[in-house]
Amino acid sequence: MITETNDLIRCFGNGDPLYERYHDEEWGHEIHGDAELFERMVLEGFQSGLSWLTILRKREAFREAFAGFVPAAVSQFGDDDVARLMQDAGIVRNRRKIESAITNASAVVALGEAGRSLDEVVWSHQPPARAEAPKTWEDVPASTPESAALAKELKSLGFVFVGPTTMYALMQACGLVDDHVAGCVAASR
């Protein structure tokens, strides 16, 4: 669905300045770097089953709670940190998601120790660019063969909570794919 505010036509995000800014300035823009991709991976995992706007509104609290999403720091979190995070009303308090963030931080660190990077792994699964923007949200897939392959590789590397749908959302958020629908101000970037 296309919505219009502030003289801009957007495929999502209208009505909330934070959401509009995210749509206009972040979603679909290329993101590189292990900490940056780790942050998006964690947030996409926490978003599962919730509204993205909920996560977006809590992003600063997540950054504070998860040591700025520095993988080496998060990988050192222990039981006391899990207990602390379960009491933090500023984030989504879901033990499985919290523990997956810590596990995934350790997997990012292990990648680095093996001479690889999360950036390299994620971007190696970038699909070919679309010939044209999707016409409607119904034309946007929930997952793709590339997101399934990324999920499979990540799982083989020790990552958890990284299914094909969550990894496709990561691909969208980090600019591996451009799913802004036709007519959206950002579709023609």
Describe the structure in your own words.
Helix 2 (34-47) packs across helix 9 (164-173). The radius of gyration is 17 Å and the shape is globular. Residues 1-6 have low confidence and may be disordered. The protein has a single domain, classed as Hypothetical protein, domain 2 (Endonuclease III, domain 1), CATH 1.10.340.30. It is built from nine helices and two strands. Strands 1-2 form a two-stranded antiparallel sheet. The longest helix has 19 residues, at 95-113. It is mainly α. It is 51% helix and 3% strand. The chain has helices spanning 17-25, 34-47, 52-65, 71-74, 79-86, 95-113, 118-123, 145-156, 164-173, and strands spanning 3-5, 8-10.
- Which second-level CATH architecture applies? Orthogonal Bundle
Distance between the termini: 19 Å
Task: Please mark out the parts with pLDDT under 50 across 5 or more consecutive residues, or reply none.
Answer: 1-6
* Fold-level CATH name: Endonuclease III, domain 1
Radius of gyration: 17 Å
CATH class: Mainly Alpha
The averaged pLDDT comes out at: 94
Strand order, sheet with most strands: 1-2
Q: Quickly give the structural class.
A: mainly alpha
What sequence of helices (H) and strands (E) makes up the elements? EEHHHHHHHHH
Largest sheet: 2 strands, antiparallel
Q: Helix amount, in percent?
A: 40-55%
